[in-house]
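Example record

One chain of 180 residues, shown exactly as stored in the release files.
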Amino acid sequence: INAGAGVTTHNAVIRDLRLDGVDTGAVGIQFGHGTAASPKAAVARVENVLCTRFTVAGIRAYTMQLSVLLNVESVANGGDGLRFEGGSTNYANTASQIISSRFKRNGGAGLRINNGYHIDFLGTHLELNEDEGGVIEQTANVSSFDTVQNITFKQCWFEANNLASSAAPASTVGQIRTGV
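Predicted structure tokens for this chain:
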């Protein structure tokens, strides 16, 4: 959704779709563009979508605003299931909801956030990911647009994550790792 430079996309709907990267595609769905001067993807609705076998992330958000992901699955990707990240943009990921979605069996984290404000996860499952179920971290490029605030998890399920680290204490397996 709006992976081009300098364009704003509003009211996009993606519904009932299966995206397969066949282990060569980088990203299944991307909101915004990480290097453009002022990209923005607002008021998007992604519903009943499966993203699988992408090398970087099933879903990547640079500038997802006022959007909803409903019943979305991001499974068996080489990188993260869902990644919110900053870029050289003037916009952050804000005021979005991820509802009844599943991020599992990914090579990275089920969810990785280094840029986001007011993002709600409701009934989301994060399980069997190689890294933690959720990683919330500040990037090395600290700016007002690479900040994480007001992230909520309600009725979410974290199970058997951090599979790549056999040295991880049992108390941290499946948890959220923060570095903010």
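Notes: The radius of gyration is 15 Å.
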